[in-house]
Amino acid sequence: MFPFKALLALTTLAVAYAQQVGTQTAEVHPKLSWETCTTSGTCTSNAGSVVLDSNWRWLHTTSGYTNCYTGNEWDTSLCPDGATCAANCALDGADYTGTYGITTTGNSLKLNFITNGANKNVGSRVYLMNNADTEYQEFKLLNSEFTFDVDVSNLGCGLNGALYFSEMDADGGLSKYPTNKAGAKYGTGYCDSQCPRDLKFINGVANVEGWTGDSNSANSGTGEYGSCCNEMDIWEANNNAAAFTPHPCSVDGQTRCEGDDCGATSRYSGVCDPDGCDFNSFRMGDTSFYGAGLTVDTTKVFTVVTQFLTSDNTTTGSLSEIRRLYVQGGKVIQNSQVAIAGIDPVNSITDNFCAQQKTVFGDTNDFASKGGLKGIGAAFAKGVVLVMSVWDDYAANMLWLDSDYPTTADASAPGVARGTCATTSGNPPDVESQEANASVIFSAMNINSSVSE
């Protein structure tokens, strides 16, 4: 995901990462099935479920109802330091439909952007659980193909319906950190390539040291620490623009950072690549490929296919290429080809494509510095967790996805134009008012154990 996620605590609830478990609301994970398929076309259904990220949950005292975190501030009497806060505060169960607008039916997940219950909720993030319902489902992606259907017809400018993989611990950090009593069952242990510092708890303790509330958001802030890991953005999109982006890191697995390791003073000083190597068809020169009534028609449901090829076509080889296909109306649609001078006319992500793109666009090639495809492929070999979310962007109004960005650059310069949305779009208060009924639907997820050419 890109850039720093101000989305993570944008509800008017007292949301926060917590490590104890509350008893006010039972935690019942909505069921969501998915499939494992073979190249012969045989598919097996798997019973799974989704769990809400703990940053959205009610955080209160272990013995009562007093909030440990309200607005964008900690209760310093309950949380004078990280360890004391973890002992004093409990994370409670979630009303998935009524409070957060999260519903599942069979193999389909719908995420509503705004939910007006007792309090207003903005956005959400969920993880796929395994059939035991106590750990996140882990996927090993090398030499495999991941497929899902998506409906973005109700998702306009300034919004992002995202599906991606992060190198999180399967148990949410439960076994590594004794002060984490909640674990994956309550959505703990998040990390990504932005090394987000707005997480309330990291490694089992509260992120209270140096916590500063955001000036443009009533509910979020940043602490001294961040949580970093490899991230593969399979899908970041609305009905105007879409991108898929690998983000490698120089660290192994979920890692707490501080200072420059988080990229605090310099965007590229951190242990992860914040920009990644993106393939956005509009940005790559094909402005008629993705959108309403275009080759991939975003007014209708379509299938997204992502293939992870290795150097030797085995599950132990190095990741060498990431391919994209679409299927809509029974027709297979090849990904658009690059139409930018100085970049080969390819339609997939390779290290060579990334190097050419960074050079032509004048971007820092932190992708190569942090390990490139081989680096993120190492995470795929060990296992990554599936994440799905809907969010708006308090940091950059989502212009990096669907408009001209940076706005100070010449829109005709290579790499600046990324979609058809106006540079005045995406302001979160406007989006939350005008797009209150927005939603994204992910369905029919499956993984094929080997790539079908």
UniProtKB/TrEMBL annotation:
Signal peptide range: 1-18
Domain of life: Eukaryota
Keywords on record: Carbohydrate metabolism, Cellulose degradation, Glycosidase, Hydrolase, Polysaccharide degradation, Signal
A molecular-function term among this protein's GO annotations: cellulose 1,4-beta-cellobiosidase activity
Chemical reaction(s) catalysed: Hydrolysis of (1->4)-beta-D-glucosidic linkages in cellulose and cellotetraose, releasing cellobiose from the non-reducing ends of the chains
GO biological process, one term: cellulose catabolic process
SUPFAM superfamilies to which the protein is assigned, alphabetical: Concanavalin A-like lectins/glucanases (SSF49899)
EC number, as in UniProt: 3.2.1.-
Keyword Zinc-finger attributed: no
UniProt cross-references to InterPro entries, sorted A to Z: ConA-like_dom_sf, Glyco_hydro_7, Glyco_hydro_7_sf
Spans through the membrane: none
Family: Belongs to the glycosyl hydrolase 7 (cellulase C) family.
Protein name, as recorded: Glucanase
